[in-house]
Amino acid sequence: MEQIKVSDATLYGGGQSPGTGLNIEERLEIARMLEQMGVDVIQAGFPISSPRDYQAVRRLADAIRESVVCALARAREEDIDVAAVVLRGAARPRIQVGLGVSDSYIVGKLNTTREAALEMAVEAVRHARRRVDDVQYYAADACRADVDYLYQVLEAVIDAGATTVNIPDAIGFLTPSEWGAMIRGIRERVRNIDKAVISVHCHNDLGMATANTLEALLNGARQAECAVNGIGERTGNARLEEIVMTLHSRGEVLGLTTSVNTRLIHPVSRLVSHLTGIGIQSHKAIVGDKAFAYTSGMYQNGVLRGRAEREVLDPTEIGAVEAASRTPLLAGREGLRRHLGELGFSLDDAEFERVYKRFRDVAKKKPDLEIRDLEGIVSGETMVYMKETFELEEVQVTCGTSTLPVAAVRLQGPEEEAVWATCHGNGPVDATFKAIDSIIKVSNELLEYSVEALTEGVDALAKVTVRIEGELPVGDTEERMTRVFLGRGADPDTIIASAKAYVFALNRLLAARRAGRRRQAITEEVRRDVDEMRARYGMAPASDVMGWSILRDENLI
User: Fold this and answer.
1) Would the CA dihedral through 297, 300, 305, 309 be positive or negative?
2) Dihedral angle, C-alpha 455, 458, 460, 461, nearest 10 °
3) Does residue 555 surpass a pLDDT of 90?
4) Under 8 Å between Cβ of 188 and 209
5) Measured between alpha carbons, how far is 26 from 259 in angstroms, rounded to an integer?
6) What's the rounded Cα separation, in Å, for the pair 392 and 299?
7) Which of the four pLDDT bands, split at 50, 70 and 90, describes residue 380?
8) Strands, sheet with 462-473, edge to edge from the N-terminal-most edge strand
9) Would you list the DSSP string of 409-452?
10) Which residues contact 333 (CB under 8 A, 6 or more apart)?
11) What is the largest CA-CA distance in the chain?
12) I need a labelling partner for 64 at 20 to 30 A (CA). Which of 46, 58, 103, 319 fits?
């Protein structure tokens, strides 16, 4: 069977999901799990776009040894040089350069001609090949391009040194038959296509991203770009778990396989959901809670005779069976470590001790604790990845059908003494949030508040997710920008879980404000590194090397 490369877009493409906002340490945690799972390529980010992306890609390049680390760049020397600098610590670096190939992109966005755009693409690939041996060319808006021009561009960039050509349907527009025909045409009409790998990038706007990706693979593509849980801009990208498990279970028919360790699919899916705050539909294929549940008597009988008789997939193949089992009340430290590993969490000793203490405390309130409850416990005790300005110490709430909801909250802040505040509100959560606001005093807007029961029963842990929007300074200027911050918390008491989640989000906002002051220092560091690299190649020093002002301007947290 032929090997398919899996290129994961969870960290960059998935980071375009509204309100996701992964910080650097969270990206690194996911990247380590992806590497452990055997993903071939990790799309790390767009380093010239912001200080946060630059720092994140550099950390990933230094930490990841087995998977290819891919940095994105536009067809500009400045972009490519910054990508090369940030990847210099990578064991297996790749630069992806891209340019539009449709007339609407070339004329409408670039305000140029086909011939000029072709020359820009070729020069960009040549420049990238002087920096790294592995260059991927991204033919933006290929699904709306004139196919003869697309073939011409692909031939030219492969001659210039592109080792992979990425064909996207970034608007999720084409049907599988159309998409398959496009890839087949590239295989048949591009003279030198045997010198490069065809990669496909499909969005899910019409719900066909997985089908389109598989159709492309059957027609000659050999790299699939996808994301864990399908997260991404708008409706998301092709789902990694669906593509990998289709090739795993139907490989003999399709003649295709991957190197992915499928037993880590469930843990990675849970980790990404936990860190992004994007839930998984209970009936979702492969990774949903109900994916292997049956209510039909006929199917239950089939499962009792043997799961293989009624299921296409064995849940143990994705690491799901253990995660659905009960955790013994008196589980020792080693047993708890093993269960946390099954959920995808890798904790240091200090984090583990906090989780273990919290595990014992929750077990006293909920005797039949389940492994899925550990996800909530971990969310409250670890994976914060920042300095917490405020810590929730106590919450007391009074409410009822004929009583005005009142909340009293105590927070430990920068001062030595903890601070109490009491407020009333429209409900207990509203009163709690107002009490927290009266202490922290950070202007923000609550965009989303959601509650999820992690397990069945009235004693289930409540997992609360909040998203707030707040203003941040842009470096040392008077400008301001708005960003969305995620907060999460879990507790058997929904009000306490809500308070934890809200304080978490406010701490992230405060941390982002502190990080904004580092923007100028990072700019100077990058400029020095790029000038040093250019001096080795006998090139002119950088001028406006960062270009952050003409892209999105983000901070580091």
Assistant:
1) positive
2) 140
3) no
4) no
5) 24
6) 47
7) low
8) 445-453, 462-473, 480-491
9) EEEE-SSSS-EEEEEE-SSHHHHHHHHHHHHH----EEEEEEEE
10) 352, 356
11) 79
12) 319
| Kind of pairing between the strands at 223-226 and 197-202 | parallel
DSSP of 66-112: SSEEEEEEESSHHHHHHHHHHTTT-SSEEEEEEEE-SHIIIIIIS-S
CA distance 186 to 171: 20
Compute and round to an integer the Cα radius of gyration of the chain.
25
Amino acid at 521: A
Calpha distance 48→198 (Å, rounded): 26
Percent of the chain with pLDDT over 70: 82
CA distance 497 to 128: 49
Q: In order of start, what are the domains of the chain with their CATH numbers?
A: 2-276 (3.20.20.70), 297-381 (no CATH), 391-517 (3.30.160.270)
For residues 283-288, give the mean pLDDT: 85
CB 223 within 8 Å of CB 5:
yes
Spell out the residues 6+ positions from residue 131 whose beta carbon is closer than 8 angstroms to its own: 80, 81, 83, 84, 95
User: Is the Cβ–Cβ distance between 96 and 73 less than 8 Å?
Assistant: yes
Give CA–CA dist 377/451, Å, rounded: 15
Cβ atoms of 192 and 163 closer than 8 Å: no
Residue 19 has which token pair?
A: 């309100």
Q: Is 177 exposed, middle or buried (0-12, 13-18, 19+ CB in 10 A)?
A: exposed
Helix or strand run (H / E) with residue 167:
strand 164-169
